[in-house]
């Protein structure tokens, strides 16, 4: 199984890497200015959040108070206490790399759901399972579908909300890749999706962790699905014995698979890195011919596939788009309008309270706003109301994950609020440098200029988020229907590609790009109506 899945992945990765290299040089040859006007903040090097939380032990399951520190790179350390964390070269009690994790706000409900899924997988009656452990109030879970879960308790509801928001951001932005170069990361994620699709695992699910961890997870999942499922259903005896046997089997699978995947990935990565300098000059020469070939291929794909795509679009997508837009349109607009108000409120407070001889204290307070659950709550909560109506669409779009879509939008909202605070600070400092006597008039000018930019960017982001949310809902099932239906047309087109550019064009990717364009066009029409 390791050899089989790694073989599929290797082919997909090498192909995707070559194509991403082409796209990189295409983008380099036609760079266009950003449409956004707010100034992005440079990566902060200070810690994002710190404080005391109570953590359940991994083995003994006892609860211990620990001092948690969220670093700028989204790595989380925890120490015995605050004093231990402040020592030079302080060594943490533990480190949490949370790429691929997610936050479960109510672990008691999460454990019931996990027990139900386990019963279904093992073919046993749910009533045979022991009642899940009940966790105290203000406890949340940081979960991974294969790796260790963390159960953490906050002192009160306010601390709980702040830390849940922080850990959601950490889980969303944590990045496990050892190599973060653009061509590699995009090629790798694309290869993961292609490999899963080739194995019949449709949808847009993504894994988290390092490159070899992700590849190991794909292989282990296949072993679990194709081989171990039959084994689990034949286990007999008390639940605890069966569950222990299953967990031991999974650990053994992960150990064996990781041992095989790690050297395979290392060899693959080394080969590709050595290949790049040899093929890059050739790619630079072929950028224009490849672009022309892509346009010709896209025309042929449209000519051959639109008659197949259109009925599927009309039956499975278009009837639902207006309903989805109805669900998300007002909440997204309301959330951004509230964000503008938050910016105005805090900059006004800054105006009234700040001594212009020392801006640092006031700037720190402004920087805190986008990071704070409570400061942003009036804005982000406007998006929470989308959950129930979006979840009702699960019967039509089974791959929908409302909280993921909502959190992505909330994260974008916080990012733009952060950029607005940063832009205001940069503008204010420039005005004061030019005219130190401008006084608080400079604050008003900087605020007005920034708000204009904020609203400009907000209008663009709102449209982008509509498109991303809707595309995230409809594309998985749409692709699942359309790709197999068009296979007989796409395969001959791939075979007919001209020799010199054949290895640089992925028919499936061009087809996917066309599908995205079709969906985006349908969304644009409805939004402009």
- How far do the termini sit from each other? 51 Å
User: Which residues form runs of ≥5 with pLDDT under 50?
Assistant: none
- Specify the biggest β-sheet: 7 strands, antiparallel
Order of helices and strands: HEEEHEEHEEHHHHHHHHHHH
Computed Rg: 26 Å
Q: Beta-strand level of the residues, as a percent range?
A: 5-15%
- In one word, what is the shape? globular
Number of DSSP helical runs? 14
- The chain-level structural class is alpha+beta
Descriptors for this entry?
14 helices, single chain, 7-stranded antiparallel β-sheet, PH-domain like, alpha+beta, 529 residues
Summarize the structure.
With about 525 residues, this protein is of the alpha+beta class. It is about 65% helix and about 5% strand.
Question: Please, could you describe this protein's structure?
Answer:
It is a single chain. The protein has 529 residues and is an alpha+beta fold. The chain has three domains: 2-37 and 177-284, no CATH class; 49-173, Pleckstrin-homology domain (PH domain)/Phosphotyrosine-binding domain (PTB) (PH-domain like); 317-528, no CATH class. The protein is 67% helix and 7% strand. A seven-stranded antiparallel β-sheet has the order 4-3-2-1-7-6-5. The radius of gyration is 26 Å and the shape is globular.
Task: List the topology elements.
Layout: H1 2-29, E1 49-56, E2 63-70, E3 76-79, H2 82-85, E4 94-96, E5 102-104, H3 107-122, E6 139-143, E7 150-153, H4 157-173, H5 182-198, H6 211-234, H7 239-316, H8 318-353, H9 360-368, H10 373-384, H11 387-391, H12 402-434, H13 440-495, H14 507-528
Antiparallel strand pairs: 1-2, 1-7, 2-3, 3-4, 5-6, 6-7
Helix pairs in contact: 1-5, 1-6, 1-7, 6-7, 7-13, 7-14, 8-9, 8-10, 8-12, 8-13, 8-14, 10-12, 12-13, 13-14
